[in-house]
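hey team, just a heads up i'm posting the complex here instead of the shared drive bc the drive is being weird again. everything in one block, sequence lines first with there labels, then the predicted structure for the whole assembly after. its two chains so it's a bit long, scroll down
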Amino acid sequence: DGGITQSPKYLFRKEGQNVTLSCEQNLNHDAMYWYRQDPGQGLRLIYYSQIVNDFQKGDIAEGYSVSREKKESFPLTVTSAQKNPTAFYLCATQRDKARTGANVLTFGAGSRLTVL
Amino acid sequence: GQSLEQPSEVTAVEGAIVQINCTYQTSGFYGLSWYQQHDGGAPTFLSYNALDGLEETGRFSSFLSRSDSYGYLLLQELQMKDSASYFCAVFLYNTDKLIFGTGTRLQVFP
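-- predicted structure starts here --
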């Protein structure tokens, strides 16, 4: 089955520790996105990547880092510089850009990070 | 800055019709999308408006008016399973970013 795998599903970390969230896709989609969701709130864009070895900052990139060494993988590192990292993190892919199409995102199941 | 505003919560009863509004302040975008998210789950795509007007997909319809910077999602014949959060979203020109609205939590009661 084609899809997006995010791991771990739940993660606990102590303050001051870096943590890396995995996002792997076998949909052969070009673009990948990371969003953060806080309870009762919308999705805010952290980073996105349109092609391998290239990525752009979203609206809340501070305290996060990413890499895109392979088309299938787009890991997100939450660094100790992120002041309030407890949140639900969602990875998404997009098949290709369409000037007139819906540009539909397909989401993974998410990773819930709690800082103790 | 770019923003899409939605009411935080809407309630309705089974079988009713409900409208979820989305007002926006953005620069150019390709179209307005709607996503549904059940508690603890991932968002899933519902509908899309590239042009002004109404698009119908089964019990769901979506509307866009660029001149009024406004859109809405209309849900008919509500069912309990429609209880979820709903987000509008736009794909911005030139930046390839999909940004989401603040989200509306819909609660359907028997």
